[in-house]
Design goal:
Shape: rod-shaped
Distance between the termini: 9 Å
Structural class: alpha+beta
Mean pLDDT: 78
Number of domains: 2
Number of strands: 5
Radius of gyration: 41 Å
Helix content: 55-70%
Largest sheet: 5 strands, mixed
Low-confidence stretches: 1-9, 427-443
Order of helices and strands: HHHHHHHHHEHEEHEE
Strand order of the largest sheet: 1-2-3-5-4
Length: 443
């Protein structure tokens, strides 16, 4: 089935994706921040005990301040996750800068500037990650230079470790390349995940819409089936039953006359024969309405021709049927659904479009068969009633055949309805160019 009109589904999908991502980031951020706070606790104890590298009071204070930020971010669970991630970023960069200056041979001073953009890319998004990557690059370049400044060295570097280490610019360059590669890769992967999640949410929303539509259609079909049974009951009561009653009364009258000794002639039975003939004709019409097609592959064309003939005889509408090529339909269900689609389209043209001419066409399209019903009526309204029962039933029948239903304006005015399906009832492929009407609607 095809759809042409916008439904506002994109904004709904974006909202669903944003909510899902925000929920996941909040939960993941809670776990990560608690893990970081617990993992940093032994390190801060070593800093306080001054076990690994001798530190100045200023360096120790910077480490303690960074740990305080990490602990606060882990404990303040009711605070906005963006604020908590900002606190984590401040703590990480403060500790990394302190490590690069006070303990340049330590691991966190080199790993920290790379880890922060990666974590922020996952938990805070692309914008925060790009800003963090730029700040990390500046930190990797600037801290070796800052360590040479006497005031910074006296404040941050312990006298016992003030031996000037060489600046390994090759190492700094490699770290910058790793940082750029990781950020670019994660940025691409982040976009891919967002597209995948949006597609999943969109598919879920579409499936939910199809389920709701199918349930509504089932309820509507049940109501229509009840009405059809009532109509059939009325037709049987007012037609066949009344004629049988008249025939029964006629038989009883003839019986009384025969019992009374009256001679009966052949003409006395003519009325009875006429009543029974009318009854048979009425029953035949009811049966044809219930099951207009048999199992013959050519039954569809014959039934459509009979439909056009009935329309001509029962109204002033000129209805024509034309078959082009091999229009045999071996699958009985396919033929039945196509006939009902044509019947509904003809009924709509007569009742709503006030058409004076209706054309029914059945085309051979190779493995496919194309049904076209075209009229010269008033045409499509400005707001097409997509929820109309007739359109919905036709759409559902086409969907059951995995077919393509197209509704649009006819070449000379009026409406053109086309349904393309595989003649053997299998799933159909896309329609050939030129057969799709300009306007396509999906109930």
């Amino acid at each position: 089935m095809r759809i042409d009109a916008g439904t506002g589904e994109s904004s709904s999908t974006d909202t669903e994706v944003d909510v899902a991502i925000a929920t996941w980031r909040r939960r993941t951020g809670d776990i990560l921040l608690v893990a970081l706070a617990l993992g940093c606790t032994p390190l801060i104890v070593e800093v306080l005990l001054d076990r690994r590298v001798p530190l100045t009071s200023a360096a120790r204070l910077c480490y303690l301040l960074g740990y305080a930020f990490i602990a606060a971010a882990a404990l303040l669970r009711r605070t906005d996750i963006r604020v908590r991630l900002a606190m984590y970023g401040c703590a990480a960069y403060l500790s990394a800068a302190t490590g690069c200056i006070a303990a340049p041979r330590g691991g966190f001073g080199q790993v920290g500037p790379i880890a922060v953009p990666v974590i922020l890319m996952v938990l805070a998004g692309q914008r925060a990650a790009r800003f963090a990557a730029l700040f990390s690059a500046l930190l990797l370049i600037a801290t070796p230079l800052l360590r040479r400044v006497p005031a910074v060295e006296n404040l941050m570097v312990h006298p016992s470790v003030r031996t000037e280490p060489p600046i390994l610019w090759i190492q700094v360059g490699v770290l910058l390349l790793i940082l750029a590669a990781l950020v670019a890769l994660l940025d691409y992967y982040h976009r891919f995940l967002l597209r995948t999640l949006a597609a999943k949410v969109r598919a879920t929303l579409e499936l939910q819409g199809v389920i709701r539509e199918r349930r509504q259609l089932e309820r509507t079909v049940a109501v229509v089936a009840d009405r059809e049974r009532q109509r059939l009951g009325h037709d049987m009561h007012d037609g066949v039953c009344q004629q049988l009653t008249a025939a029964l009364l006629r038989c009883q009258s003839l019986k009384r006359r025969a019992v009374g000794g009256e001679a009966l002639s052949g003409g006395d039975f003519d009325i009875l024969a006429s009543l029974l003939g009318d009854t048979v004709e009425e029953a035949h019409n009811v049966a044809v309405g219930l099951c207009p097609l048999d199992s013959d592959p050519g039954a569809l064309a014959a039934a459509l021709g009979e439909l056009a003939n009935r329309v001509r005889l029962s109204s002033s509408v000129r209805c024509e049927f034309r078959a082009c090529g091999n229009i045999k339909t071996p699958d009985p269900d396919t033929a039945q659904h196509l006939y009902r689609i044509a019947q509904e389209a003809v009924s709509n043209a007569m009742r709503h479009a006030h058409a004076s001419c209706i054309r029914i066409e059945l085309h051979d399209c190779g493995a496919q068969v194309l049904l076209v019903v075209e009229d010269d009526g008033v045409g499509l309204p400005a707001q097409t009633p997509v929820g109309g029962m007739g359109l919905r039933t036709m759409t559902n029948r086409a969907r059951l055949l995995d077919g393509e239903l197209t509704i649009g304006p006819a070449a000379g005015g009026g409406v053109r309805i086309a349904c393309r399906v595989l003649r053997d009832g299998a799933a159909s492929s896309a329609g050939q160019p030129g057969e799709v009407a300009p306007q396509q609607l999906h109930a």
